[in-house]
Model the fold of this input.
Amino acid sequence: MHNTESIFEQIADRGHERLCFHHDPETGLRAIIAIHSTALGNALGGTRRWYYESEADAIYDVLRLSKGMTYKAAVSGLPMGGAKSVILLPHREQVRTEAEARAMGRFVDTFNGAYIAAEDVGVDTQFIDWMASETSHVMGGETVCRGGDPSPWTAMGTFHGMRASLIHAGRGDDFSGITVAMQGVGHVGQNLCKLLTEAGAKVTVADINKKSVDYVVDTYGCTAVYDADILTTECDILAPCALGNVIDGSSIQKLRCSILCGAANNILGDPEEDAVALKTAGILYAPDFVVNAGGLIHLAGMHLGMSNELLQTKNDEIFETTAQILNRGNNSTSTYAAAVEIAEQRIAGTQETGIHAS
Ligand code: NAD
Done:
């Protein structure tokens, strides 16, 4: 994460269109919006509220996340670009306020719809509705704007990705007795625990928030382990559902899973190299931006005017898309490379998006 490149070099390297910094004098809000690409359309991407050790870390995060959104939208067949925003909290425990959210909403509004905000880590439906009091370019609220919490849809899509992975690995389409180790049981993780345990899987969890762990243990019969042990827990499917950068070249040899499939964005420290190392290690990697697209599909689909039936169909398509990418990964350097190739072909206009918004 210690990038020695200048900001312009970083933007150019990743192919970004815009990186915009904002300070609101009244509230002290410090925020960044990164628009990676609008080649396929306006860009919808979440707002992350987070305490970063340095401004460089925040820039690194927003640049990586926004590029991931471009790939996510493209691989999901959405006529949308890729963007993301981050709010740099002054300290870890900073409580969200309406004034902060409204200031962020005004910042988002200056993009006139080229950027559409939504939930990410640290932002809930209330925060979104506060933002929506200042801009119509936001999705995922419950009262002032539409869409609601996208995490059940993200969990459903990730579940489809896991199904496709099991089938690809020759394990069939049945979760009975399948073991899943999940890091992070927040919004997405809890919904995923529900789907997996209902399907018969045995789920082991870890989270730095004890309340969340207790909830899934009591409600879904999950088993808890220490945070430090979850990534090396022996399991069929390892599902990182907390933050990114949890697996890299040095940790791959320690993994004891046969499938890596989770909802977190940017699971791999260096996706190009790490995905190749995973393949070499015999671990099937379902690329994060493919399987965690359910929330984006839901909110972007609503924004585009899709019917409820079409929203469901598009979410279910994550199964097919993952299966296609895993198959393509057999003849590619990695499944990540295969997914990026499809996304880039779509962005370059060489593949149909297959979108049918009504
Ligand atoms: P969340 O904030 O609700 O949950 C994250 C959980 O991870 C929290 O419970 C937190 O305590 C836990 N956590 C953080 N660091 C941890 C660590 N080191 N070890 C164990 N647990 C840790 O966020 P969410 O909405 O559930 O999103 C989870 C991940 O999925 C994020 O990476 C997010 O970007 C990604 N994602 C979310 C959505 C969505 O619809 N919410 C969509 C796509 C991708």
Summary: The chain is about 40% helix and 15% strand.
